């Protein structure tokens, strides 16, 4: 009996019976995987910086101490005015390029039963978006100027779309899509769906509580901003008036024009700052 038990014990512990685990461990440490992981982390940090700055600019506007734009261009301008601002801008360019690379790789290379077609399309869309953000940031860092404001760009794009055949329908559909995206972002944040993408096993209970609060508060605020921007696009379609469309800056300023006054803008701004800090946490804890 002791011989049989010893034989079975040796069979279970034999390296020959564990080729999959060894192979998976080796693949996880491959140079390509490490490069994509580093790219994803850099991208989350870059995005977090922009969201924190947009939130701070929004607070300054709410209290009457800010005249800049509370959007990505305003954030870039704020960075450019700081010591070593040029170097910081180029660091953001690298970060956005890294995020585009990581999202693109997830869309094309990542396989498995959980990688459905919808997830691939979503990652592909995000890759294109971050590639565009990377390009515009590089143009600004190279001295290309700030160009048109986000509000003017939104109105120009809306005006061009309205001139197309069925343009009013297309703009309306775009507004509905934006409202839907905002709603999904807010609901998923409220339901804490983001925790599935984080490595919570290595967090203490207190750290997990803090990260959860950041993700919920920040995600809901971001979703609300997207949804409200979509409502303005819908109004532009219904009224056939491109001036009704608003970029992020004008969308944020609209919160101060509600009965709640500047306090609602402050609340949303704090939420965007929370999302920026959550992005920093994601750079460390996201399953990459």
N-end to C-end Cα span: 47 Å
Please give the share of residues in helix: over 70%
Radius of gyration, in Å, reads 23 Å
Nearest-integer average pLDDT: 85
| Poorly predicted runs of 5 or more residues | 1-28
Structural class: mainly alpha
Q: Give the overall shape, derived from the CA principal axes.
A: globular
Described by strand count, sense and barrel closure, the largest sheet is: none
Order of helices and strands: HHHHHHHHHHH
Tally of DSSP helical segments = 11
Please state roughly what percent of the residues sit in beta strands, choosing from under 5%, 5-15%, 15-25%, 25-35%, 35-45% or over 45%: under 5%
Quick structural gist:
This protein is mainly α and 288 residues long. 75% of the residues lie in helices and 0% in strands. Helix 3 (31-62) crosses helix 5 (85-108), helix 3 (31-62) runs antiparallel to helix 11 and helix 5 (85-108) packs antiparallel against helix 6 (117-141).
């Amino acid at each position: 009996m002791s011989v049989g038990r010893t034989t079975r014990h040796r069979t279970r512990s034999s390296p020959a019976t564990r080729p999959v685990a060894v192979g998976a461990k080796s693949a996880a440490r491959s140079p390509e995987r490490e490069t994509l992981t580093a790219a994803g982390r850099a991208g989350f940090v870059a995005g977090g910086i922009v969201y924190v700055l947009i939130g701070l600019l929004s607070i300054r506007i709410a209290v009457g101490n800010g005249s800049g734009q509370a959007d990505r261009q305003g954030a870039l301008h704020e960075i450019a005015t700081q010591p070593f601002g040029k170097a910081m801008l180029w660091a953001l360019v690298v970060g956005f390029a890294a995020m585009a690379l990581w999202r693109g790789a997830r869309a094309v290379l990542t396989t498995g039963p959980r990688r459905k077609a919808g997830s691939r399309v979503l990652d592909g869309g995000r890759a294109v978006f971050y590639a565009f953000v990377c390009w515009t940031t590089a143009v600004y860092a190279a001295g290309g100027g700030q160009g048109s404001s986000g509000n003017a760009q939104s109105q120009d794009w809306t005006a061009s779309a309205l001139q197309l055949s069925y343009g009013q329908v297309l703009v309306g559909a775009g507004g509905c899509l934006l409202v839907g995206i905002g709603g999904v972002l807010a609901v998923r944040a409220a339901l804490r769906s983001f925790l599935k993408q984080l490595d919570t096993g290595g967090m203490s209970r207190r750290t997990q509580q803090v990260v959860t609060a950041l993700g919920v508060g920040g995600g809901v605020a971001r979703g609300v901003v997207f949804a409200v921007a979509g409502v303005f696009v819908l109004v532009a379609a219904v009224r056939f008036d491109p001036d009704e469309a608003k970029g992020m800056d004008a969308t944020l300023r609209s919160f101060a024009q509600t009965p709640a006054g500047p306090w609602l803008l402050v609340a949303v701004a704090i939420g965007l700052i929370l999302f920026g800090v959550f992005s920093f946490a994601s750079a460390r804890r996201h399953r990459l």
